[in-house]
Amino acid sequence: MRIHHLNCGTCCPWGGRLFDGESRGVVHGHIVCHCLLVESDAGLILVDTGYGHRRLEQRRLSKFFTVLNQPQLIESETAVAQVRSLGFDPRDVRHIVITHLDFDHAGGIEDFPNATVHLTAREKEVADEGRGGAFVGTRRYRPRQWDEVNSWALYPLGRGEPWMGFDCVRDLEGLPPEILLVPLVGHTWGHSGVAIDTGNGWLFYAGDAYFHHGEIGRRNRRCPPGMRFYQDMMEVDRDARMANQLRLRRLSLEHANDIEIFCAHDRQEFEQFANAGRGDRPLSRWRERRAPEQTFASAQPT
Ligand SMILES: [Zn+2]
After folding, report:
1. What angle do CA 219, 220, 223 make, to 5 degrees?
2. Residue 170 Cα, ligand 1 centroid: separation in angstroms?
3. CA of 132 to the centre of ligand 1 (A)
4. CA of 4 relative to ligand 1 center, distance in Å
5. CA 265–ligand 1 middle distance (angstroms)
6. CA 230 vs CA 49, 100, 106, 233: distances in Å
7. Distance between Cα 126 and ligand 1 center (Å)
8. Confidence grade of residue 283 (pLDDT, cut at 50, 70, 90)
9. In this structure, which of 7, 12, 48, 213 has its CB flanked by the most CB atoms within 10 Å?
């Protein structure tokens, strides 16, 4: 398998450094929509799809999130444009694995008409009903982003097999056995991560289970106030979200050398992968950051 890391949606949310902890100034931050394109024997597989075409998203997205997140809606960043620029035909994307159906993950789905969309059954159910929090529920889920999908593969929660202390779905219909769906509930009711056995260690895409690289790879959670606020606003189950984040933090310390964990929106994480070249694994840099003395012994939830 060959894995490409794609940014399918730059956003410049209000708050600058207060939001992302890195930008200069406090006006606009800079986050990404980190997606994956996997070349496999089962065809091309996309993991999350970011935002769709500007002309569509301007009609589909809620005003609230458009103003808050300031998505740039750059045509060349759409998943379909990047699939084409890598030399592939979008019709050869046979599978899309979606962590959850939020507007910033599902925008590109309908550009791939031959793809089966894989996710938890719970996520599809709550998204169809707009049940994702009292205020944000109907604003985060935008059914027009996925109402023309022909083929869904939905997986029940709670019937998983163990993987690294998590339950997971191992047999995704038509997908290679190296790709697992790992429920990480809390951000939404059916949110999950995606683990990929590269043959040289695991990649674990945690979606929106955390937002900032300071939330894993260290004993104590570190997260800028803006991202902290945003995550709190978007959560549906705080206890589950924080418990899963703690498990991810634990995993990142206990398996620093054989699992690389990354989330959807952290720019620094994305750049580490993107700069390492297509399919390369920037593990050495991660090892540096995650010093071996950082054992889980004192890792605490915050
Ligand atoms: Zn998101």
Report:
1. 135
2. 24
3. 13
4. 19
5. 7
6. 21, 16, 19, 5
7. 16
8. very low
9. 48
Query: How much distance in Å is there from the Cα of 208 to the middle of ligand 1?
Result: 5
pLDDT for the residue numbered 249: 97
**Cβ contact 218:233 at 8 Å:** no
Ligand 1 center to residue 48 CA distance, Å?
Answer: 10
Answer whether 60's CB lies under 8 Å from 142's CB.
Answer: yes
Question: What are the tens digits of pLDDT across the range 68-110?
Answer: 999 999 999 999 999 999 999 999 999 999 999 999 999 999 9
271-286 average pLDDT score: 64
Non-local (6+) Cβ contacts of 293 within 8 A are none
Q: What's the gap in Å between 128 CA and the centre of ligand 1?
A: 18
State the distance from the centre of ligand 1 to the C-alpha of 231, rounded, in angstroms.
9
Question: Ligand 1 centroid to 264 CA: how many Å?
Answer: 6
Q: Which of 38, 57, 177, 174 is nearest to 107 (CA)?
A: 57
pTM over cut 0.70: yes
What is the torsional sign of CA 283, 289, 295, 296? negative
C-alpha 33 to ligand 1 mean position (Å): 7
